[in-house]
Structure of FABP family protein:
Amino acid sequence: MENFPQDIYTEPEPDADTLANLGPLTGMAGIWTGTRGLDVNPKADGPERQAFIEHMELQPIDAQTNGPQLFYGLRYHTRIVKPDGVETFHDQVGYWLWEPATGTVIQTLSIPRGQAAMAVGHAEAGARTFRLQAVRGSTVNGIVSNTFLEHAFRTESYTITVSIHDDGTWSYEQDTVLIIPGQAEPFHHTDRNTLRKIGEPVPNPMARAAARTPGDAQGR
């Protein structure tokens, strides 16, 4: 059981600079592109291997508190297309969160197919690789789906492993385990890509405010 404090109301004073407090998420902040993605998804006649191109933006948010709990994080949006394509192949939004006090890493995600999830893992502040998982039925790192997806492509679990590389890139590998009617074994829907930075993150609002001179703050 978690060792929660008796005082569940008093909030800590967070650092204004989120970018300086992201722990293992530090190497993910910014605007990224990945041109060598690979998706393996289920089709009626067997698995389909689909190459994809990805644009991902991860921007720092102001620190978030739940009483004594304190998170620093990144708001993200990823849009994926097929090579030479325009139509969106996959769209996803959410947050990456880091809780320094416990070493907890959280990814929340939502896709416009009527599905949302929260994956949870643990890592040291300087970790270069970490793994998160969401599991169907859990109330703390669970998965919720619309009725058709629950019937036809039931998601049992979602696992993502992130690796931060010395050359400034970072990569991920995802394994989404599906239960599909008529298939004797679970299907592993996998995705992987390596992201290269094309733009720097914009400091969070509190960091920008703290960086202003007194004259700037007064509108001079």
Remarks:
- DSSP finds three helices and eleven strands in the chain.
